[in-house]
Sequence to fold (664 residues):
Amino acid sequence: MKKDCRIGIIGATGAVGQEIIRLLVNRKFPCSEIKAYASSRSAGNVLKVDEWEGVVEETTPDVFDDLDIAIFSAGGDTSKALAPEAAKRNCVAIDNSSAFRMDETVPLVVPEINPEAVKEHQGIIANPNCSTAIALMGVYPLHLAFGLKRMFVSTYQAVSGSGVAAMKELENQSKALFSGEKAEASVYPHPIAFNLLPHVDSFLEDGYTREELKMLNEGRKIMNLPDLKVSCTCVRVPVFRAHSMSINAEFEKPVDLEIARNAIQSFSGSELFDNPSKNEYPTPLAYTEKEKCGVGRIRKDHALDNGLALWISGDQLWKGAALNAVQIAEIL
Amino acid sequence: MKKDCRIGIIGATGAVGQEIIRLLVNRKFPCSEIKAYASSRSAGNVLKVDEWEGVVEETTPDVFDDLDIAIFSAGGDTSKALAPEAAKRNCVAIDNSSAFRMDETVPLVVPEINPEAVKEHQGIIANPNCSTAIALMGVYPLHLAFGLKRMFVSTYQAVSGSGVAAMKELENQSKALFSGEKAEASVYPHPIAFNLLPHVDSFLEDGYTREELKMLNEGRKIMNLPDLKVSCTCVRVPVFRAHSMSINAEFEKPVDLEIARNAIQSFSGSELFDNPSKNEYPTPLAYTEKEKCGVGRIRKDHALDNGLALWISGDQLWKGAALNAVQIAEIL
Fold:
């Protein structure tokens, strides 16, 4: 895309929106202008992200006339209402919500895995769910080596996935506990400070959450593995911003630890961080504000014949959201 | 055992030791005296646990001459050195460390599962590892219903498992973060506040930790299932005292959710807490200082034919340690 590309961030004032601006600036995205959009409530405010600053404008269908790319990070309802308006006006919508991910006419893209899918877009390109994107940074290179059949994923998800208000809630509840005050819960139904909630996104009839099904459905679509089996349990943990996952993965071929380690290390989206004897393994603090996800604790699985157990940490706001979207914009 | 039974707590000043005293008092354990023992460093100090108080004495082999039961919770080295001394003096040692758990001559007992094994003791009875005991509170009733073949366990373990100093470290690091100070790490190799460490107990050659193998080896011994397959990943989380676990379990027989729920609810060590539509599921805060473990999020597993996914929270200091030991003493 030419240097005079005009890019807009829809939902620019949110946790992900601000990271998108930061990454566009830091990665020197070739555009003439970055524009910030949000709801009418924030319109007129000056938004500052590091050195960058701009006046927030209200998102209306007309704004897409002046944009080449719009990255949406303002929730599913805004995306459903406005991404088609962008597409209609020849502005490509990169959508961070779940609104279009399973739409057959919309490519769901992780640039390290299926960049070619970008070309098939009809105006909208979907960004995957944060936990799916991070899990695949560990699992996809292993799939290339051994052929993925099935995986069990237990997540340890940071509060940044619920936005700025949730990060503030974790902070306030933590402080309140030490000052003897009562910890108020408003973003989450129960306290999150020094607690765990096996509850991310809403519950479905069969007892799974929407978040848990995303790992299954999005994983199949992104890796083009329609028969992949995935069992997922999603848990919110009192961590500010990087997600982690414990994964048990079963493969078609016999696994080899050396090949597995090399596959991870040579994959562009991940790095191997796996020296237990030196207490080196990924942690969410160590992988906050890192572009690559960290993969460690790789070992032969005790309960699967061709299986590997592993642990991944990755920045939820970056690879889990903003970075993946910016990478898609870079392909465009 | 007769009312004039004399019971001693070895390691009484520790996190588990104090909970043992609390539970003996609260459950009106039929004994004439509760005596507190620790290292020479604490000897002479007055220990207070709620209404109870006593002078701490140094643990020497001679003290067992005056005891009928000694509950050991002072680490593996103390147990190895002194539990045989107790046994020699006709004082039954209930050992909370891992020192004797896999010894074929020592019963490893979870009173809800294999109380009859207590009778076979030769002076020492082992208490299981905390995460094993809590996992089995959810899995064993399901095993009785469907026949357990294999399970994948990812743990979310509280810092109380590392003792009082770790609980203080979590508190201090959390406070330091908000006051802009640096978070010191001494119990753990990395900060635990707002972080996760996929590292519980020490690493073995094959990349697993000792803690992860305990789930396999102790689970097999307690449930008498020598062929059980268990893959376990143990993770320390910034929670003060209850452990939680995400489990995917595979069974011999087809599973039925109604039967599974009834099995959990009617089991003496657990209770069903599973109403997602009302945001009811176990959390570590809700299961702190509860004798029963909470089991919820029960659903058919997406990646196993006869499988169930579930989530358990249980008080690490109680069912995971002190309560189980006191229950063994009650059987004696």
